[in-house]
Description:
The protein is an alpha/beta fold. Among the domains are: 85 residues, 2-Layer Sandwich (Alpha-Beta Plaits), CATH 3.30.70; 168 residues, DHBP synthase. Helices cover 31% and strands 23% of the residues. The protein is built from 21 helices and 30 strands. Strands 7-6-14-8-9-13-10-12-11-15-16 form an 11-stranded mixed sheet, with helices on both faces. Strands 21, 22, 23, 26, 27, 28, 29 and 30 form an 8-stranded mixed sheet that branches. Strands 4-1-3-2-5 form a 5-stranded mixed sheet, with helices on one face. A hairpin with a 3-residue loop joins β15 and β16. The protein is globular, with a radius of gyration of 27 Å. 52% of the residues are buried. One zinc ion (ZN) binds next to α4.
Amino acid sequence: MPSKKIRIKGIIQGVGFRPFIYRIAHSLHLKGFVRNTTSGVEIEVEGNQRNIAQFITMLQRKAPAAARIDEIKVSGSKIEGHKGFAIRDSSESTGSTQISPDIATCRDCLHEMHDPEDRRYRFPFINCTNCGPRYSIISDTPYDRARTSMRSFQMCSACAQEFSSAQDRRFHAQPDCCSLCGPTYTLHSITGRMIDTHHAITKTASLLKNGKIVAIKGIGGFHIACDATNCRAVTRLRRLKKRPTKPLAIMTQHRNVTSIAHLNEHEDRMLKSPIAPIMLLKKRRSRICNAVSPGNPFLGIMLPYTPVHYLLLEKVPYLIMTSGNIQDEPIVQQGERVAKRLGTLVSFYLDHDRAIENRCDDSVGYYLPGKGFSMIRRSRGYVPIPVELPLSVKPTLAVGPYLKNTFTLADKHEAYISPHIGDLDNLETLQFFREMVEKYKKWFRIDPQLIVHDLHPDYLSTKIAREMPGPKVGIQHHVAHFVSCLGENIVTGKAIGIIFDGTGFGLDGKIWGGEFFVGDLRTQQRIGHLQYLPLPGGEASIKKPFRIATAYAHVLLQKTLRLSTNREIHAIKRMIEQERNVVYTSSMGRLFDCVSAMLGVTMEITFEAEAAINLENIAAPGVKGHYPYGITDAEPRVIQVSDTLSAIMSEKKRGISKGLISAKFHNTVAAFSLDLARRVRDETGISQVCFSGGVFQNRYLLNLMIKRFTNADFMVHVHRQLPNNDGCISYGQVIAGNTDTKAIP
Ligand code: ZN
Ligand code: ZN
Ligand code: FE
């Protein structure tokens, strides 16, 4: 009688994997045990050889939906003469477990929640082995109830019965609970007064229905909610959140999505997945208030992903659900903090008494034709699943950039990327950053031997890195972008990196952001860039695109644009002429800002990249042709845009529509990029390209460039597991920091 030991790695804890193993072992009359270890799941089986073979096939083919098997190792083992098959308690061993992300409420649970006969009828914390909170309630590994914030809830006998019954779909579901033994929702006024305990959710729904703004505790933190069809409420929320135009996310049930947005089958599949991200979908004319995403053809839509969301949506079918934070601070996780941080925004909050151990924002993305899901923010539903590294690294902590910060803790081939931390410019965010670094080190048992940071000396992340003990290395921002895209796509050969970005500290002390590299995971050479142009008033001018347009027109066209007061125009000119308070930049983001302001589309911005987004949004479809540009011959080649801007100005004067000019400007960017890449290919034979950088969040540009480059027989790599924006930086830093990267300016 043979006996086998099977070790499995992957997302296999907290997804109903052990109960599943138990059931198939039973059905095949195998004896032995299964247990969680800190490095995955360990199984021992004894029995008929054929059944063991079938067992190994079944465990791969029929694994629970939320599980992901990365590795299976089967070895022979000693016959122990097990009496039956058992689920054993976790064993402590070395290695790192992979913690399951939070999983959206499953169909079985929803069905029970809507069944008046069920003991969990309308219970807002219903969950099972296939769904519910995981990452957000974990305080340590391996994943057992005692190491989650469910530890303070003693199971009632009915729940305990389910938990220990192999035939039950809540067998070993760690957060299992019911209305007798589980957490409860309570409604509070912002002054802290408890308003309701018994009908807290119904009352909250009524408040929302009546146009109130309410903070709602969910899985990874508080959302700020209001009725998305009530324009007064939406406008008020915007005014209070000091967020005049940046799009707000909507939550609605699946059946309602197509009445407010267009939806293809790929988008639908992603929307309904256990990740339940915010998807950017093409808007339809609908009841949704225009102020939700003014002037933008897309709506950010997500489906309900916890039971309480379903209950609230019964009364208010379209809810604004925006992160419960003020501007760039992290999302609020505790009821007691609501009054302090969100007191000016909401008058009520719906709280519950299950602690959020780890906060996590909603993930955001969209469907990129031919490429799949394109990430804008990688957080809930993904975190903390590791992303594979293209090479083995020493234990490393990469602290990431300043904006949209994530850090990465890595070892060997695994990169554990943090949830979205936010913009590292305030104490709250900084504290969140430090707290998560410590947790990641503990969970994944990685003690970093190398710290990698950005080259920008003033970034808080750089300063934190400097305070840490051990060897450190600084990596240029756009090199990190390039290597991140190479690494994620496991490109081991040479490629051309086209990095179009907002801002990054360059090796020559200037601000880079329109960069062309040639290289691989180990060496990168900057072979081209957008010409250097002056930013009057330094990086502060980023908020005022009209200043950028004025400066660029002055320097390149010797023209005075009348975009602001004479005094301001003079001040800008003086700064440039006297070289005072001016920094030089090759940023592609700034070129978009310049054109946006030149056309009168956006003069000042209220959120990052607003001018560029508005320029993208007006671009007319199907426009051919582009404006002239120049490319110098010597390396690094410089892309010159004076002819481009001059043609734009004269077309504007002739009354050509902004939509047409915008489209032709996008075409120009694609044209000079392809032109430069072709020259490099002719000289070197390299025909792979990587696109990275925040500017590629521009869907119009990204689609256009993918099409043009593919047609020209380039092999195009884009980010798919990580965002184009600075959310990908820390992952790239890990690779570059470990390969002794030398970027040559
Ligand atoms: Zn479920
Ligand atoms: Zn119970
Ligand atoms: Fe960047």
